[in-house]
Amino acid sequence: MPYSYDEQAKDMLDRFIAQLNTSCEKADPDEASADLKYTRALQRNRLLKTGVTMSVDYSHDYHKMIHGIAWKMDVDTRYVTRIPFHAVNAKISYFLNGKLKKKINEEQNLYAYSIWLKGQTDANYVCPHCGAATRVSRLTDGCEYCGTRFLLHELFPKITNFYTLKSYSYHRNIAPFTVAGAILTPLIAFLVNYGEISQAFQTEDFVSAFRLLFSLIVSVGVGAVLGYILFAVVTVSSVLWKAITSIPAIARYNKVKRILPGFMRGFEPNFSLDYFIGKLMNLTSTMVYSEDYDNLTVYGGEPKQNTFGDIIDLRWRGMFDLNRYYVKDDFVYLDVTMYMDDILCRNEKIFDKKEKFRMLLCKSVRAENDYGFTIHAVSCPTCGASFDASRIKHCPNCSNEYQLYHHDWVVMSFERG
Fold this sequence. Notes:
- The protein is an alpha+beta fold.
- The protein folds into two domains: about 5-165 and about 265-415, no CATH class; about 170-240.
- The protein is about 35% helix and about 30% strand.
């Protein structure tokens, strides 16, 4: 039986999770895309600047834990998408100047965007500058013969991004209710019947004393049952409330998933929503963690300063809104809101906060469609110099701006809310 995409995706995620852990001593998982590795590097710089260190432990047993495929897509695009998930016990600690300031210890479902390119092969490529032939997979850092830099879109399969959602731990949540019930009920019963109990012992009425003590013992079990009933009522109420309050957001997101592919395929026939979501998460992280917007390739808006220096960790909530979408002067624009859970370091404190980031994306309607392994030799249109335009906005030789919007999305504005 052939090794299916589903099994490959689950195995990829298993390795990915193991290499996310601090104990692995690997900066980035092998399966992480170049964009994901880049944003993680930016985050490490932010942590270093703020004096914060993170300890990450996603403990899991691949053969015992709950895992599966949450989403799959094989048709309509040049991509094959799988979103595998693994249930993990997340233990994440944040230290400020060596002191523990915040700790997360909860059960989570970790989802990853695992993407393949249909028909991809590691083909030969001839450098347009020196004529040397080499394999595509060896060009990530540029031509090994003449140093020409390339804008290399992903060699798949890769995990383009991941996110976690807190899962409901039944045994962790029920324990406080049952324990509290088992303690409080006999305690209340003892206080209510204290006079009778005291009199029974003083008069040496051991039958009555035994009966009263036995009722206290029984009340432990009754209290545990009452605690369980209260837990069930609270749980059902909480689930119903969350479901009701989430309906508008879920409805909007489902509408986005219907509208956006239809709109974009007028310009990009093989548009993939899953690949685009990974791009959105990477762009959000890049804008939050980058310190210098003036030389940031993916930013093409008005000059601005980074105002997000207190954010040390970003977690997508699994949802985004499409506020506007339109075409103007041969450019396609998408006005998007990303829903995030942030970890902030402010005033010697580390805390979490739910936030929204709104950004306006721009891309030429004639942007070249790069399906994963197509390579561009990045040469300055003014002086012809070769440089890494995927990370540098202006040519280091003549300072001419490289216009990334001819190839990919560029952020024109970015702000909270």
